Amino acid sequence: MTLTVAAGQFASAGDVETDIATVVRAVQQAGGANLLVMPELFLGGYRLPPIVVGESDPRLQPIADAAAAAGTVVLVGACLDGPDGFTISTLAFGLGDDPAARRVYDKQNPCGDEGQHVVPGSESVIIDVRGWAVGLSICYDGCFPEHARAVALAGAEVYAASVAYFAGSAHRREVYYRARAVENGMYAVVSGLSGSVAGAEFDGGSAVYDPEGRVLASVEETEGLAIATLDRPLLKATRAAHTMLADVREPGPVVRR
């Protein structure tokens, strides 16, 4: 069974209701894709301190309605309030009908000044989308090979990353996600924030990479969708030919000579 994915690249208006309307538009543009990934902290835009959104906020209902109508699982970045503090998180629509269960993942690796405003998540997460195992990531998580490796070893076939990279850092972003794909033999779906928020410029970079790190689809304009259909036989063939995931071993002790 194939999986059609869409990586969204849009500018946040910095206003939650306007951003919700953009997500609904993206769902409609995705044309019934099985999975749509939207950028990090999209609802309210990437800023510090972040704008906090309630996971059961009634304003989110249009996204839930659009996801249901399209048959699409929609992943959207937002700052949420948790028992231990605020988190940079992923909300999921289309996985179930319970608004209280929309929070599916909390960023485990806050970056730089983010740590002054949010607490790290404690769990890696895989969700099921049409029978495919999708590991979740938010921006700085993807800079750590261990993060993607953990979900790959647990069965992930797709690494879905919501990101917000400042203008000028495209070279690092491309290296990170091509590497995460090839070293684990899995697809990577990267959704990048574009435009300007709170005085900062973001450079998008939304793309879908195959299990060898090759670009299947990308967004070349300021806004749009990178849409691709993922093929499981290709994933299996890649992992059979390039066996890094199967061959991974715990490193031995480090000695100085």
Oligomeric description of these chains: single chain
The average pLDDT score comes to 96
Poorly predicted tracts of residues: none
For the largest sheet, list the strands in their spatial order. 5-4-3-2-1-14
Main beta-sheet annotation: 6 strands, mixed
Distance from N terminus to C terminus (CA atoms, Å) equals 52 Å
Number of helices: 6
Radius of gyration computed on alpha carbons = 17 Å
Note the overall shape: globular
Helix and strand succession? Answer: EHEHEEEEEHEHEEEEEEHH
* Helical proportion, percent range: 10-25%
Count the beta strands: 14
| Structural class by SSE content | alpha/beta
Topology:
Elements: E1 3-9, H1 16-29, E2 35-37, H2 61-70, E3 73-82, E4 85-93, E5 103-106, E6 126-129, E7 132-138, H3 145-153, E8 158-163, H4 170-184, E9 187-192, E10 194-197, E11 200-203, E12 207-209, E13 215-218, E14 224-230, H5 232-241, H6 244-247
Parallel strand pairs: 1-2, 2-3, 7-8, 8-9
Antiparallel strand pairs: 1-14, 3-4, 4-5, 6-7, 9-12, 10-11, 12-13
Please explain how this structure is put together.
There is one protein chain. By secondary structure, the chain is of the alpha/beta class. It contains six helices and 14 strands. The strands form three sheets. Strands 5-4-3-2-1-14 form a six-stranded mixed beta sheet. Strand 2, helix 2 and strand 3 form a beta-alpha-beta unit. The longest helix has 15 residues. The model has no long low-confidence stretch (mean pLDDT 96).
